[in-house]
From TrEMBL:
Ranges in coiled-coil conformation: 78-112
Record family assignment: Belongs to the MreC family.
Gene3D superfamilies: Rod shape-determining protein MreC, domain 1, Rod shape-determining protein MreC, domain 2
Pfam families, sorted: MreC
Keyword Coiled coil set for record: yes
Protein's name in the database: Cell shape-determining protein MreC
Species assigned in the record: Paenibacillus konkukensis
C-alpha cells in the first residue's frame, strides 16, 4: 500500500510538470491571451494596487517625518550658532569700542604730558546718580589710589567736573552739568582764553540744561573774548589746575546789570555716556599724599 501511494504521488507530480511545460510552450507560441487569463491578470493588478498605494503613503509619511526631524535638528543647531555669533559680534564691537577709547586716552595723556606736568589716573565710571538733578557719577578710584576731594576730573575731550566725595576704593564726581550759581560758590570755575591767559578772565557759575551750555560770567566789557575762542581753566581758583580745556565761546552779551558781560560756552566734554575719565593730580597734590 505504501509503495502504491508513492507511485501515485510520483505520477501526480510528473503530470503537473508536464502540464506546466505544455502551458509554457502554448503561451510562448501565441500572442493573445484568453479572457480567463485577462480577468485573472486584471484582478491581481487591481488587488496589488489596493495594497501598494497605502503602503506607499505610509512609507512616504515616515520618510517625511524623518526629514522633518532632520530639519528640526538642523534649525536648532543653526539658531544656537546664530545666537553665539550675535553674542560674539556684540562682544567684539564692545572690545573694539573700548580699544578705541583706550587708544584715545593714551594719546590724550601723551599730549597732556607735553603741555602740563600733571599726572592723569584713568578711572572707569561704574555708576550714575539716580537723582537726575544731582549730576554725579561714581568712579572706581578712591582714597587708596590717592584721590582727594576737589581734584579735577577730565575726559579725552575736556573738563568733566571735580571729585566731590571720596571713599576707600570709590569716589563721587560732580559733573559740570551740575554747576549751579545758587549753590556753594566753591563749584565756580575760574577760566580764561587759550593763548590770552593774561588778557581774559571769567567765571563759569552755572549750566543751562535747556541749551546744554555753560554760562561764563564776570567778563570785563573791555575783554577781547570773542565767539570761537577756546576757554581753558585759569588755575586761579586752586581747585581746577591751569590749562584744562573747557569749551568754546558761541555767544557773548552784556550781563543783567550791564556792569559785566556773560558768554555761552559749548563744553567740549559730553556728560552723558561717560565710560572712562581721568583724575588730574598736580605735583603739589602728590607731594601732600
Amino acid at each position: 500500500m505504501k509503495l502504491l501511494g508513492n507511485k501515485r504521488l510520483l505520477i501526480l507530480m510528473l503530470g503537473l510538470i508536464c502540464f506546466i511545460a505544455l502551458m509554457g510552450l502554448t503561451l510562448g507560441k501565441r500572442q493573445q491571451t484568453t479572457w480567463p487569463e485577462k480577468f485573472l491578470g486584471d484582478t491581481i493588478s487591481w488587488t496589488q494596487g489596493l495594497f501598494y498605494k497605502p503602503a506607499g503613503y505610509i512609507a512616504g509619511f515616515f520618510e517625511d517625518m524623518n526629514q522633518m526631524r532632520t530639519i528640526f535638528i538642523e534649525n536648532k543647531v543653526l539658531k544656537q550658532t546664530l545666537t553665539k555669533y550675535a553674542r560674539d559680534t556684540t562682544r567684539l564691537n564692545d572690545l573694539e569700542q573700548q580699544n578705541k577709547r583706550l587708544q584715545e586716552a593714551l594719546g590724550f595723556t601723551e599730549r597732556q604730558k607735553q603741555a602740563n606736568n600733571y599726572t592723569f589716573r584713568i578711572a572707569e565710571v561704574v555708576a550714575l546718580s539716580p537723582d537726575a538733578l544731582n549730576n554725579t557719577v561714581r568712579i572706581n578710584l578712591g582714597e587708596k589710589d590717592g584721590v582727594k576731594p576737589n581734584m579735577a576730573v577730565v575726559s579725552v575731550d575736556g573738563l568733566v567736573g571735580r571729585v566731590m566725595q571720596t571713599f576707600s576704593f570709590y569716589s563721587n564726581v560732580q559733573l559740570l552739568s551740575g554747576v549751579d550759581d545758587t549753590a556753594n560758590t566753591s563749584k565756580a570755575i575760574s577760566v580764561t582764553i587759550k593763548n590770552r591767559e593774561n588778557e581774559s578772565f571769567g567765571i563759569i557759575e552755572s549750566y543751562d540744561p535747556a541749551s546744554q551750555k555753560l554760562i561764563m560770567t564776570k567778563i570785563d566789557p573791555n575783554d577781547k573774548l570773542q565767539v570761537g575762542d577756546e576757554v581753558i581753566t585759569s588755575g586761579l581758583g586752586q581747585v581746577f589746575p591751569k590749562g584744562i580745556p573747557v569749551g568754546k565761546v558761541i555767544s557773548r552779551k552784556p550781563g543783567n546789570f550791564g556792569i559785566s558781560h556773560e558768554a555761552e560756552i559749548q563744553p567740549y566734554a559730553r556728560f552723558d555716556h561717560l565710560r572712562e575719565v581721568f583724575v588730574v593730580i598736580v605735583p603739589e597734590q602728590e607731594e601732600t599724599q
